[in-house]
Amino acid sequence: QHRGPIFSLKWNKNNNYLLSASADKTAIVWDTKTGTVKQQFVVHKAPTLDVDWKDDETFCSCSTDKMIYLCRIGESNPIWTFQGHEDEVNAIRWDPRGIYLASCSDDCTVKVWKCDSSTCFRNFVGHSREIFTICWSGSGARGGVSLNQDLPLHLASASMDATVKIWDVENGVCLYSLQKNIDPVYTIAFSPNGEYLISGSCGTTENDTERGELQIWSIKDKKLIKRYKGNGGIFEVCWNSTGQKIAACFSNSTIAVIDFIFR
């Protein structure tokens, strides 16, 4: 059904629907039991870059048209609109409770929205270049339940300016700026217990070989505790469910798995 490259895929929690976003400007909800299209959403005027479920029936989509739409299965038009970014919106993420929606953009801002308001709840300014992606603490390994429910909810952002910033959403401030990269940071992930964060950079060229770097940060100590160089830029990093293993995929078609021991 899509007529262009597919940029994003997300399962809903029930695992009965798979959501996709495409350069053809649409988002599609797929029925995973039958493999057929449940509903195709034509709401954006430009490529749809990312999607994220709020619950099993409701999701948001974002686009190079600078818009974010909240959509629901069975409804042909968006049920809510989030407008405020001044350039393309690269990524969107609901917090683990489904209360806040975070978005990041080429306008160098991170915005946090509430679903009962069209104006943004927080507008975080601090990056000097485009922001690739965002990640909530407490979201565990790819959306699971956090292993540490006592930690506050934080939001991380990764940018072309080679920094990762940690934001306190409740108080509206930047807690730390993690600056040990010299290359754009393309991917980030909090550990399931929320105490560590990994980042992956696009990499520089050394002796005709692209060398991306994986970094492991202690959030509590605000310190870089480990770094690894790979042959190729890093496109994605993730933790396993226990937080004892880290995986990273590289532009040279390889995947690395690293053992991690909690300190």
Q: What attributes characterize this protein structure?
A:
263 residues; 4-stranded antiparallel β-sheet; 0% helix; globular
Beta strand %:
over 45%
Low-confidence segments: 140-147
Biggest β-sheet, characterized?
4 strands, antiparallel
Using DSSP, what is the number of strands?
Answer: 25
Spatial separation of the terminal alpha carbons: 48 Å
- Average pLDDT score: 91
Question: Can you write the helix and strand succession as a string?
Answer: EEEEEEEEEEEEEEEEEEEEEEEEE
Count of helical stretches: 0
Q: How would you describe the shape?
A: globular
The proportion of residues forming helix, as a percent range, comes to: under 10%
Q: Which structural class should the secondary elements be placed in? A: mainly beta
Query: Which value, in Å, is the CA radius of gyration?
Result: 18 Å
Give me the side-by-side strand order of the main sheet: 1-2-3-4
Task: Please render the helix and strand layout as text.
Elements: E1 6-11, E2 17-22, E3 27-31, E4 36-41, E5 48-53, E6 58-63, E7 67-72, E8 80-83, E9 89-94, E10 100-105, E11 109-114, E12 122-125, E13 131-136, E14 154-159, E15 164-168, E16 173-178, E17 185-190, E18 196-201, E19 204-206, E20 209-211, E21 213-218, E22 223-229, E23 234-239, E24 245-250, E25 255-259
Antiparallel strand pairs: 1-2, 2-3, 3-4, 5-6, 6-7, 7-8, 9-10, 10-11, 11-12, 13-14, 14-15, 15-16, 17-18, 18-21, 19-20, 21-22, 23-24, 24-25
